[in-house]
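Continuing from the previous page of notes. For each protein in this section, the sequence appears first, followed by its structure tokens. Read the first protein now.
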Amino acid sequence: MTWAARFRVRENLRESLWVVPLLGALTGVLGAFLVVAIDRTVHLPPQWQYSVSTASTVLSAIVGAMAALTGFVVTVTVLVVQMATGTFSARYMRLWYRDRVLKGVLALLIGTLAFSFPLLRRIETNFVPNIGVTVAGVLVVVGLVMFVLFLSRFVHRLRPVAVAALAAEAMRRSLGDDVAGIRDVGDVFVGPFVGGDEQSALAIRCNRPGAIQAVNLPAMVMWARQHECLVVMRHFVGEFIETDDLLIEVYGSPGSADAAERTLRGLVAVGIERTIEQDPGFAIRVMVDVAIRALSAAINDPTTAVQVLNYLGDSLRVIGTAELSGHSWHRGAPRRGVVVPFRRWEDFLALGVTEIREYGSSSIQVMRRMRAMLERLSEQVLPENRAAVRAEMARLDATVARSFSGSIDGDRAGIADRQGIGGPGRLETVEPATADRVSPSA
């Protein structure tokens, strides 16, 4: 199995909602047989023993309660999916599917049911699984506590600001892994490759459409070193590629073309949808989706967009301060290693602000918060990235001038405010017209 196939299997397992509950059910069944075997060899004191009728009643109630509670958790999950896709972003579900608490609750409830049912079948007139009934009762209490934690967790995670915070945290992890991988592996060049008129020794094309989900850079660099070749990726992680698109070019002497193609193709994972593993832009896309949904005419909640801008600004700061320019490929560099395209700072910045600026052009607080975000970015990002911030500031000025032309609040829309509106800003009070004033002596 290639690395790409293992990556897709791992992603499917991480996002599946049935694997962990299935393991919980199997554990429950095996635990029931083990407890019955122990019960047959251990004699408990009378205060720990149950009558046949009591044990049957307790286990029957537990089986029914766990089945009902599992159905309720599934119902809540479906409602969360519907609300998240309709209110936030369908892309957010890639993060939500991975939540361990949801999978743990389902595994515990289904495992308790699978544990209790075999015990119920083992009750006889001369044998009662006393330890098993006690353990089942403890599992019910633990399951109820976990259910309350699950309910509290997901009620809080239904807030747009919580979604933005989760996406921002995932973005920081993704970018940190990318930067660390580029620096630690070595022989990785970030940016475009211009090979002149030289023809590549091997051109690998896509054999099916999909989004590039991840690339195994360490293995690809190792292959390039072994064969003294330069491997050039023609598409960045997160980009959708079509059949027959050029995926990889190899410069040098790769040896057997078929073996090289199989090896390199197996180091690039292609799936039906983007993931957040090596794609920081995907997290920004999620945050922007939440903001523009809030700014739509159906919802009209600019304060939510301001909350998203809080986390979006911090995410852009992290990207704008990441040092990647020193790793770009240039003519005369050794023809050994891997060249990977990566989104420019300008691309990340445009992705983060363009749609929010357009959809929120009529909202004073969105304009003010975006101006504060851009002013702060212009101070914090690397010097070579500040020109793009100034360009976005000019676009913001033009948007405010267009949207608030002739408006009495035009001066307010042009002020930076990190709270959107209501924060300490350079707000000028507009005096009422003189004709509307009434003299005290009148």
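Done with the first. The second protein uses the same format. Note its length before scrolling.
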Amino acid sequence: MLEAITAFAAALEHAARASANTVDNYRRDLMSLRRFLLERAAHLGRDETEIDPASITQDHIRGWLAGMMKTHRRATVQRRLSAAKAFFRYRENAGLAVNPARTMRSPRSERRLPQVLGQDDIAKLLALDADGHTPAALRDRAIIETLYSTGIRVSELVGLDWRDIDEEIGMLTVRAGKGNKDRVTPIGEPALDALFAWRRAMPIAWEAQGPVIVNLRGARLTTRSVENIVRDRITRAGVPIALTPHGLRHCFATHMLGNGADLRSIQEMLGHASLATTQRYTHVSVNHLKEVYRRAHPRA
């Protein structure tokens, strides 16, 4: 199965032009299935070191999903089933095996609304270390400012090069993000100021083709490193919600909507393929309005 997963990942990357992040996620999800099947074989007393993909049945996949439903979010289970479906569909199209996942349905989505910070909490987060002038402090501030100013994904942030920032018109070119499509999105002046303050303090010479967000040795930061930076600043700022970089994307969209931006424009800026994905932010605004009404109206 290990060889089959490697072949599928290569086909996904080259034929389907999937992003590196998507390929990594699919590979990780399929390795989870392989690990489950090896553990199941060991539990049944079979000394197996590898799994034949052609031997996998719908019952095997159901057992894998059922175990995850006890410990994982439903969205994770849905994503992993999607990875399995894509894997077996690829093998079926190649004439290698039947597709045991073809008729399987994903579990229903949880109706979970994203947690967002109020604008006062965002201001508190942005004000943290405002007087710091070390390269690390300036870089970390630029990270927060850019994520909130643009709503880009953390993978898109770490993929930015200096050539992608147009200071004159205040726009970013986000290259080959989710869906493998470039897009252009606005960036505010405070975020631009923070980015160029970081560039002046960079411990290595910057290049137009070089990365924007790097460590102090000049290597491009990973998404995990950015997540750790955001988590640390959230904690130190005393913000009540344990927000992730993706949470700042939710804040961007919710605050834009609350201040009068239309859904279509927000969809373009976020890079959503479907307006339905963007529409979940209307639920956040409606809940906020209901809470304001409940607290303010004498006969609410």
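What the second structure shows: The chain has two domains: 2-93, 119-295. The mean pLDDT is 86. We return to this in next week's lecture.
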